[in-house]
Amino acid sequence: MHALSAVWLTTLATTIVAAVGLCMLARRYPGRPTIVANCCLAIVLLGTSAAWIVTTASGRFSAATSLPFALCDVATLVAAVALVTRARVLVELTYFWGLAGTIQSLITPDLNVAFPRLEFFEYVLAHAGIVCAALVLVVGERIRPSPRAVPRVFVITLGYTAFVGLVDWVTGGNYMYLRQTPGNWTLLSVLGPWPWYMVSAAGVAIVLFTLLDLPFWQGRARVARLAEEGERTRPAGRLKREAELGGGVRAPLALPDGRVRDHAGADRELSPPDVGDPAELDELVAFPAAEGRASPSDHDAHIAVFEDGPRDIGRPT
Questions:
Q1: Are residues 214 and 247 located together in one domain of the fold?
Q2: Does residue 117 lie in a domain region?
Q3: DSSP 3-state assignment of 261?
Q4: Which domain covers residue 291, as residue numbers?
Q5: Are residues 111 and 255 in the same domain?
Q6: What is the per-residue pLDDT across 215-247, written as a single tens digit (0 to 9) for each?
Q7: Where are the beta strands (DSSP E) in the chain?
Q8: Same domain, 253 and 206
Q9: How far apart are CA 161 and CA 163, in angstroms?
Q10: Which pLDDT tens digit goes with each residue over 251-285?
């Protein structure tokens, strides 16, 4: 399939329209409509993978060409799960793999069948679906990559590449183009002869990952600056081990008359056995449960920080 053919240019235009539409939907209707759209896209990705398996199984099977070990094959499954679960590491993999790798397969397709063959739709739906998923999750739903996303995704990619290299050695295949470049022109074609183009590709991956992460640097710096300013303006000695309690201060639960709200929602006095003389109360601040351990039942759990350490004071009403 030629990258400049009318069919392929129409495919690219359709992919762009779909990605923009899904991102706008996620921005304007972040509730149920976005969840339904994400699930539908996940079903399309999973259905494409299933169709590829059926097509391969019904044809002539070869371990060198028929196994689902290409990076885009794995990215299809990762993107489908990320759309449903929104797990951060899966979102990061979808974003960086989709916009640094899969999008190249759309720009310079390695496709030997023409429209409207089934294999054509499998290729298009899988690759376009990954790119759409990456944009919807990060641009539409604003699930930002973490500060360590680039090295984490790069290490995972290297580990998977090493595994696929072993598969290529055993089967004699060329998954992920680790033994030779594709027959048609791609970015790998200008990165040198084998095996040096793999080293060059690793360098290109780092550059592309960094460029994709660049839009989030300013936001991270702003958050860090605000956190630092908050620490400077906070009265000395009032909060203890804030970061270990989950970070991010929430509204105080102390009532104006010195009482607090207990688990049942009732207001009670701070008794001397609890905190001593109320005048010695340093400050009462509520924190969310530690990240990664919260559940619907304890999402609103709060911890009060007193002069002598943290205590659980229940949930707000």
A1: no
A2: yes
A3: strand
A4: 240-314
A5: no
A6: 999 888 888 888 877 766 655 444 444 444 444
A7: 260-261, 267-268, 302-306, 309-314
A8: no
A9: 5
A10: 444 555 545 444 444 444 444 444 333 333 333 33
